[in-house]
Amino acid sequence: MKRAILAALGLATSLAMPATAEDIKVGLLLPYSGVYAALGNDIDAGFALGLETFGAETGATFEIVREDTEVKPPVALGKAKKLILQDKVDVMAGIVSSGVLGAVRDMVHGAGVPLIVANAGNDEATGIQCSPYITRMSFSNGQVNRPMGTWMAEQGIKKVYTLAPDYAAGRQMIDGFAQTFTAAGGEIVGQEFTPFQKTQDFGPYLAQAKASGADAVFVFYAGGEAISFVKQYDSFGLKADLPLYGSGFLTSALYVNAEGPAAEGVITALHYVPTIENDANKAFAEAFTAATGRVPSEYAVQGYDSARALVEAVKAGATDRESLANALRQVSFDGPRGPLSIDPATNNLIQPIYVYETIAGEGGLTQKVLAQLPAERDPVNGCEMAPVSN
Amino acid sequence: MANDLGFWTLQALNALQLSMLLFLLSIGLTVIFGLMHFVNLAHGSLYALGAYVAASLAAVGGFWMGFFLAPVAVAGVGILLYSGLIRRMRKSGPMAQVLVTFGLIFAMLDLTRIFWGDLALAIEVPALLDGRLSFLGVEYPTYRLFIIALGLAIIAALAFVLGRTQIGAMIRAGVDNDAMAACLGINVERLFFVVFCVGCALAGLAGAVAAPLLSVTPDMGLQILIPTLIVIVIGGLGSLKGAVAGSLIFGFVQTFGAVLAPQLASVLIYALLAAVLVIKPVGLFPAKG
Q1: Which end of chain B is more exposed for a tag (fewer CB within 10 A), N or C?
Q2: Residue A385 falls within a domain, yes or no?
């Protein structure tokens, strides 16, 4: 009798409120120390803002448990275990480094805990290593650069010299670019990969780029290396004769001001810049600046959209690990980056890419969007997984 | 491209510029080691500290304020380190010294992170040194020429002080045989202190000079430590000649390695290090014969 009353009560409340008042426990797995700490903090701020902005659209309450990966795969694996087994989180989000993603992938996949990747871009994560539990709300390395190859060829650039750090992401970024650039009739006249995080002086490589007879240089560098590279490129006076193009991380809003005037005129492509004109981005940029005092970077928007994706999945009725994983694969919405949707074949995000030029604006450097390139879905790259169940 | 003389001049200047930067760091480390038999692995952290102090001062009073005051500030930190830690560690053997100074690296890494944050800082090159000069038929950034000139000036000054002055003779005596030098009435302990401070100031200077060229990040001290250690091992411990030779070898091998055999660029210098250790374990120009 008592049970029947309780059941009736439960039924009544669930009818009254379409989304039941669930408590969703989120494990945020980010580097709060180590070389990527600045990225981790931006993603964290974006994620918190996303939950604050959209969380109320569901009846659920969200609880965040934060763990520091220290950008060390073994540490991250231990923290992931703790989140899954001890904290019993419903969903995890974060992961900046692809190395860390590779380390926790099997653990997450085996435990069946949904993971929203908020940065790590290695192509395999949504290719041969894909998992129905891992959805990526950031980007894949190839995705960011492929549209730029075609675009640069269309601008009449024939010969390009490329430079990138010698590690998986560096090679995937350059490969993505080179693939479409040569397909569109361009020629790669020289290609160099510099020792990752061991190169402080790019002088020797710059002299080679200059001597290569290229029309332009296309590079991928990020963080401290990007700052050194852009400044040294300018100090050798190469910018005038040999325009600098690149993957948009080169002149990320996060550190472009440290590059200073050297970054002016550099043209790059990325999935987000703070100056994209749409209402969602305006609202996001204002709220983010009010909360942190910084202009939002691509990392911030990745955190923000990861939180939004989680909220959308909960709105669709997901309540536990299994249903959240399934719902996350079908998420789509219009965000600051424009129309976004998850490709259920790979679980990678489909999004437009923006070509932008760094220019001097009021109060520092700003980004002028030159072109919005249409969203393309990544090739399946050997990804085989169970289709979405309804 | 390979037959273009300008290209090779440019690369030679690049190599020289890198050598001078490494020299500023390694001379302090090598003399401290030669004189005090003290392994100060935190030397790279002092370099990072110099860069951060210079960046902060540059934001207030321009590049030159950072350039002149950063070495002083770093020498001040050196005094604190010396009186707080290093004097106590003098007799405790190399393993303990390595562990303590290794620990210092991480303590200072996190301290810089707490004070200055995780985002990279940068300094603009001063207007005087901005732009490029035509030099030996190539256009070369003025600031890099300034680094080369500064390095050469410091080599000349140190050669003069170490080779021609009384204090230089005392330092050389101390490096050669500190017990005997003390018997002859030289206050070796005070000499150590002065040399340590000068070494720290030079590390700070290197940081201040490198800051406009590279980006100022918390881990820059760790990144420079290995090259600096390679320089002093190749050059030989404790001698000015060794530091100069080691820096030049490192700079040229690194630069031309990157040009001629890019796949081997990062291996080449370690291979050379191994070769030196096998053939001449004390280095090319050790202070003690």
Answers
A1: C
A2: no
DSSP H or E run through B116: helix B93-116
* Probe site for chain A from B4, B119, B133, B223 (most A CB atoms < 10 A): B119
Same domain, A233 and A294: no
Distance from CA of A200 to the nearest CA of B (A): 7
Task: Extract the tokens encoding B130.
Answer: 């901005």
**Are residues A242 and A281 both part of a single domain?**
no
Domains: count for chain A? 2
Q: Angle at which helices A141-154 and A168-183 pack, to 10 degrees? A: 30
For residue A121, give its domain range.
Answer: 2-139+277-351
Helices B43-61, B5-36: inter-axial angle, 10-degree rounding:
120
Answer whether B148 touches A (CB < 8 Å). no
Inter-chain residue contact A211 with B144, CB threshold 8 Å: no
Please report the ipTM that was assigned to this predicted complex. 0.85
Q: What confidence tens digit (pLDDT) does each residue in B189-214 have? A: 888 889 899 999 999 999 999 999 88
pLDDT value of residue B282: 87
- Interchain proximity B124–A260, CB inside 8 Å: yes
The answer to whether B259 faces chain A, any CB pair under 8 Å, is: yes
| pLDDT greater than 90 at residue B137 | no
Nearest CA in chain A to B8: A207
Mean pLDDT of A23-38: 90
Q: Are residues A251 and A364 in the same domain?
A: yes
Chain B residues in contact with A201 by the CB 8 A cut-off are 14, 17-18, 213-214, 255
Backbone angles phi, psi at B190, to 5 degrees: -70, -35
Q: How far is B14 from chain A (nearest CA, A)?
A: 6
**What CATH number should be reported for the domain holding residue A340?**
3.40.50.2300
How far is A225 from B214, CA to CA, in rounded Å? 8
Closest-CA residue of A relative to B133 is A236
By CB atoms closer than 10 A (0-12, 13-18, 19+), residue A340 is buried
Give tens-digit pLDDT for A281-292: 999 999 999 999
Are A235 and B143 a contacting pair at CB < 8 A? yes
Co-location of A147 and A219 in the same domain: yes
Q: Give pTM, 2 decimals.
A: 0.88
